[in-house]
TrEMBL record:
<keyword id="KW-0534">Nitrate assimilation</keyword>
<protein>
    <submittedName>
        <fullName>Nitrite reductase small subunit NirD</fullName>
    </submittedName>
</protein>
<dbReference type="Pfam" id="PF13806">
    <property type="entry name" value="Rieske_2"/>
</dbReference>
<dbReference type="InterPro" id="IPR017941">
    <property type="entry name" value="Rieske_2Fe-2S"/>
</dbReference>
<dbReference type="InterPro" id="IPR012748">
    <property type="entry name" value="Rieske-like_NirD"/>
</dbReference>
<keyword id="KW-0411">Iron-sulfur</keyword>
<keyword id="KW-0479">Metal-binding</keyword>
<keyword id="KW-0001">2Fe-2S</keyword>
<keyword id="KW-0408">Iron</keyword>
<dbReference type="InterPro" id="IPR017881">
    <property type="entry name" value="NirD"/>
</dbReference>
<dbReference type="InterPro" id="IPR036922">
    <property type="entry name" value="Rieske_2Fe-2S_sf"/>
</dbReference>
<keyword id="KW-0560">Oxidoreductase</keyword>
<feature type="domain" description="Rieske">
    <location>
        <begin position="12"/>
        <end position="110"/>
    </location>
</feature>
């Protein structure tokens, strides 16, 4: 089973779902040159957000710590520790800031 992100060109295969470790992210280079941070939760549900920390400009969100707040999954930036909702991209610590989210799905490989 693969993890795919929806980008302008369509669905892009990122990796095998089994390659993702719950609580840890991976960075994926996208066709437009930007990066996505891809995560999977303990239930096997994948998430994808922009990898760039909007507070520092560094491509590091894939290295952040994953947790939950109020039942919502988030990743905390490894630099300044702001938390970003993995479903909406909204910063939980600064309501005026958000990161891009990507539609994500799993697909059966043949």
């Amino acid at each position: 089973m693969t993890v795919e992100l929806q980008v302008a060109q369509g669905w892009l295969t990122v990796c095998e779902l089994s390659s993702l470790i719950p609580g840890r992210g991976v960075a994926a280079l996208l066709p437009d040159g930007s990066q996505a941070a891809v995560f999977v939760d303990r239930a096997g549900r994948p998430y994808a957000i922009g990898n760039q920390d909007p507070f520092t400009g560094a491509q590091v969100l894939s290295r952040g710590l994953v947790g939950t707040a109020g039942g919502r999954p988030f990743v905390a930036s490894p630099l300044l520790k702001q938390r970003f909702d993995l479903e909406s991209g909204r910063c939980l610590d600064d309501e005026e800031t958000a990161v891009r989210t990507y539609p994500v799905r799993t697909a059966v490989t043949s």
